[in-house]
Q: What sequence folds into this?
């Protein structure tokens, strides 16, 4: 069996739950081991993942690479600019060819349509390693982190501060699938796409837009933000100025639930979207969140290759 993970809705609530269980179990089973040692069962022995990057990456690149090694498999890292793709070979032909060499493809690209095109023509699983539209693998790790802190996802309230971007789209989708509420607070003109909100509400999800950041975080269990300028966007002073009231400050964290957890996918810009005292403070879970990319990615690969869920 092979399945693509282009967005979290491809897995649905049952698939996500299965991946989160698998990620937690594998994390626990290898606690304290050297990171380069494979899991005892080496479930992807003999398998190769191609990772194709058209944008920079630290976490996605290293976590998927180590994920494959721990699962007993190997990886090939491809930079789009060094491939024939970079000089006009089609995404469809690239997908067909890579499918003859490797067992799965992870792609980080700008236009979500390229990811969809890749999946349409690949005969092996395709995983979304970030597009301008969404970042589902990040949010798998975010959910794992929240479960570690709170025990469950259902009924929690997540407050997103700042730009209505790709990471937020995946959080909104996850909330609708897994039963948590998302309150979005940012300046006018930078809201998440209507289709992200519409898709979630159609699934019965609870998504609210709240311009007042204090009201948005009041009662929040999770406070989450991301860079104000995503990869591929121009550095715009007007946008930075509009975002300023939405910086996650100690005062905003104090307005959330006293036990609220701070999340950030990283890379972070201290003094812009988040104050250093928050991201480096006791409520921040960012290092566990970053670590969980590895464990979550292992579960994603196993789900895509039909080993779980
Ligand atoms: N959070 C995340 O995706 O990080 P990278 O851009 O470093 O992969
Ligand atoms: N929104 C950010 C996420 C980086 C992991 C970006 O797209 O650049």
A:
């Amino acid at each position: 069996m092979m399945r693509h993970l282009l967005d979290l809705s491809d897995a649905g609530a049952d698939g996500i739950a299965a991946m989160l269980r698998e990620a937690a179990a594998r994390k626990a089973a290898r606690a304290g081991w050297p990171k380069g040692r494979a899991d005892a069962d080496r479930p992807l022995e003999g398998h190769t993942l191609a990772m194709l990057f058209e944008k920079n990456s630290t976490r996605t690149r290293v976590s998927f690479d180590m994920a494959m090694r721990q699962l007993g498999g190997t990886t090939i890292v491809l930079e789009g600019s060094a491939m024939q793709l970079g000089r006009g070979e089609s995404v469809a032909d690239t997908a067909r060819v890579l499918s003859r060499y490797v067992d799965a493809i992870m792609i980080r690209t700008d236009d979500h349509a390229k990811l969809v095109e890749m999946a349409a023509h690949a005969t092996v699983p395709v995983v979304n390693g970030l597009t301008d539209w969404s970042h589902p693998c990040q949010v798998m790790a975010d959910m794992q982190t929240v479960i570690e802190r709170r025990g469950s996802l259902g009924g929690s309230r997540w407050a997103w501060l700042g730009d209505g971007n790709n990471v937020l789209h995946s959080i909104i989708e996850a909330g609708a699938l897994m039963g948590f509420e998302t309150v979005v607070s940012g300046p006018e003109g930078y809201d998440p796409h209507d289709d992200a909100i519409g898709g979630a509400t159609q699934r019965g999800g609870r998504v609210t837009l709240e311009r007042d950041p204090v009201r948005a975080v009041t009662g929040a269990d999770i406070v989450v933000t991301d860079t104000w300028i995503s990869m591929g966007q121009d550095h715009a002073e007007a946008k930075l100025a509009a975002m300023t009231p939405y910086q996650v400050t100690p005062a905003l964290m104090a307005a959330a639930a006293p036990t609220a957890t701070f999340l950030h996918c990283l890379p972070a810009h201290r003094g812009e979207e988040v104050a250093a005292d928050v991201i480096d403070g006791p409520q921040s879970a960012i290092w566990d969140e970053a670590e969980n990319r590895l464990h979550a990615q292992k579960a994603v690969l196993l789900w895509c290759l039909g080993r779980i869920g």
Summary: The chain is about 40% helix and 15% strand. Residues 130, 165-167, 226-227, 230-231, 265 surround norvaline (ligand 2) (CB under 6 Å). The two ends are 11 Å apart (CA to CA). Residues 4 and 125 are 5 Å apart (CA to CA).
